[in-house]
Amino acid sequence: MTSAGALRSPLEAELVGRLLDRPPTTARLPVGLLTREGKAAELRRLQARKAMDAAYEAELVLGLAEDTPDTLDPPPGHPGAKKGSWAPDAELPGVSAFFTSELATVLNCGRGTAAHLAHRAWTYRESLPATWAALAAGGLDEARAKVLAEVLQHTCPAVARAIEARLLPAATHLSTGRLRVRALALLLECDADAVDKRRKDARRQADVRSYPSHREGMSALAADLPTPVSAECLDGVDQLAAMRTADGDPRPIGELRAAVLADLIRRPWDTSRTPVTAQLTITAALDALAGRTDQPGEVNGQPITAAHLRELLTRLGALALQTPEGGTVTLAVTDADGRLRATATPEQLARLARRGCPTHPEQNCGCPVLDRPAPTAAYTPTAAQHAFLTTRDRVCRFPTCGQRAGWTDRDHVIPHAAGGATDCANLCCLCRSHHRLKTHARGWRFVLDDDGTLHVTTPSGVTRTTRPPGLRPPEPPAAASTPPAVAIPDDDLPPF
User: Fold this and answer.
1) 487-496 pLDDT, tens per residue?
2) What is the 3-state secondary structure (H, E, C) of the chain?
3) Largest interatomic CA distance in the chain
4) How confident is the model at residue 302, as a pLDDT?
5) Average pLDDT in the 285-293 region?
6) Confidence of residue 121 (pLDDT cuts 50, 70, 90)
7) Higher pLDDT, residue 451 or 404
8) Is residue 415 part of a domain?
9) Which residue segment(s) compose the domain that 450 sits in?
């Protein structure tokens, strides 16, 4: 597949380059001078421009996809060929499996968001050309175009276009909800198998997620379930919460529902089954634990207040740096900028304190006794390196990826086979998908700084930088001060 950019003339290349170098601009009217009717008219014009931009975005996405054919991927049977549940689904026919990661990096969004955008663009072109044209003309807003693409993406292009022809003339007169209902009804009438495929696809993409809540110190736990199962679970939780209320529990019903759900998952009363131990990664400054500062901490990467942190650690028996039953305590030693210097358990610290400097055992010298784990000649990182990297990185370090470190590989940024050392300065955490991308996708560049800062550059030349979560961002450059005015001597004044 030949990129269109390779066929342009030098003059065209120069013109396109100048246009791309221009900062983005948009025409704006002075809002204060607009009447009420004028503001409403301008909002409608703005909506039309958004639709046009969405159509243009789809065209750009498809163009970038054409520059990334699947002929660049490892062939079947190759160690890097996609296989199993770790491999991402091919989003577009004939397009590299690594394309969505590049698109996510370019747009600075998650891979799931990029995959939906790419598939929607493909659906516009292959199955809904009239919808795409209406979007490009500003006659159909993006929200309604998305509804048509989401409902009709699994049916064949002929059926999709037939349904599109029946819905498009009245689409702007329907709410997005009503448009979705009508599209689904027509799809059931014309292609019931496509509806079943949508359900199977939805089940395949189901997952359980935890993300920060807008309520202080709380997180939301969400699961994608078939609608009947979800309704059954909610009703069961509601009934159990009502039973607690009837037993005299004074807490609000919402709090009781949340407590019931947590108990059903954790089963604290059930000792007949093999126990499941959850892993919490708690990050806190010593001053916060001692109550000398209100610096917030983290639990599994989500911020909590210092008071909440002390309460949690008290419950775990870790405030006095005691290892809780079934858990571990790892101390991270950082410099003033948050750069990780070393990790150790309380027991290791106690041994180091007793032993002191092995070179000057009788002196109070300044020799370091705790530092970053030493490199190893082996390919596999040592246990000390593993602990250091887990503490430093906490998640997959690929831009926009948040996979927890427990599900990641410890990857050599400079490959071990190419002379890269098994050293923490050359290792970082990457989830299996992004580890595979770094190893087998062509045109990508990964650079790791000594402090753990990772720079990732896509084949299209976009660079994103990720820093270890504990590393403080660099100070912004100081604003350039206006140089003092210099008096011009009288003899330098121009003649009049």
Assistant:
1) 444 444 444 3
2) CCCHHHHCCHHHHHHHHHHHHCCCCCCCCCHHHCCHHHHHHHHHHHHHHHHHHHHHHHHHHHHHHHCCEHHHCCCCCCCCCCCCCCCCCCCCCCECCCHHHHHHHHHCCCHHHHHHHHHHHHHHHHCCHHHHHHHHCCCCCHHHHHHHHHHHCCCCHHHHHHHHHHHHHHHHHCCHHHHHHHHHHHHHHHCHHHHHHHHHHHHHCCCEEEEECCCCCCEEEEECCCHHHHHHHHHHHHHHHHHHHHCCCCCCHHHHHHHHHHHHHHCCCCCCCCCCCCCCCEECCHHHHHCCCCCCEEECCEEECHHHHHHHHHHHCCCCCCCCCCCCCCEEEECCCCCEEEEECHHHHHHHHHHCCCCCCCCCCCCCCCCCCCCECCCCCCHHHHHHHHHHHCECCCCCCCCEHHHEEEEECCCHHHCCCECHHHEEEEEHHHHHHHHHCCCCEEEECCCCCEEEECCCCCEEEECCCCCCCCCCCCCCCCCCCCCCCHHHCCCC
3) 103
4) 57
5) 58
6) very high
7) 451
8) yes
9) 330-358+369-471
Residue 41 sits in the same domain as residue 189? yes
Is there a single domain that holds both residue 131 and residue 177? yes
**Block residue for tokens 């705790």:** 370
User: Are 191 and 111 members of one domain?
Assistant: yes
- What is the C-alpha R_g of the chain? 29
Q: What length does the chain have? A: 496
- Based on the fold, state whether residues 169 and 256 are members of the same structural domain: no
In the predicted model, is pLDDT for residue 13 greater than 60?
A: yes
In a domain, 315, yes or no: no
Are 145 and 104 members of one domain? yes
User: Does residue 496 lie in a domain region?
Assistant: no
Q: How far apart are CA 32 and CA 437, in angstroms?
A: 51
Structure tokens at 147: 């509804």
Residue 289 has pLDDT above 70, yes or no: no
Q: Are residues 341 and 465 in the same domain?
A: yes
Residue 301 counted as domain residue: no
- What are phi and psi for residue 321, nearest 5 degrees? 60, 35
Structure tokens at 189: 């009438």
Amino acid at 146: K
Chain segment 250-288, per-residue pLDDT in tens: 999 999 999 999 999 888 777 777 766 555 555 666 555
| Rounded distance between C-alpha atoms, residue 448 and residue 423, angstroms | 12
Between these two residues, 483 and 371, which has the higher pLDDT value? 371
Q: Lowest-confidence range among 17-26, 220-229, 302-311?
A: 302-311
Q: Are residue 43 and residue 130 in the same domain, yes or no?
A: yes
If you search the block for the tokens 């969400």, which residue do you land on?
Answer: 222
Q: Give the count of domains, the chain.
A: 3
Shared-domain flag, residues 152 and 218: no
CA distances from 343 to 279, 348, 380, 427 (A): 18, 10, 19, 16
Residue 162 has pLDDT above 50, yes or no: yes
Q: Are 485 and 469 in contact (CB under 8 A)?
A: no
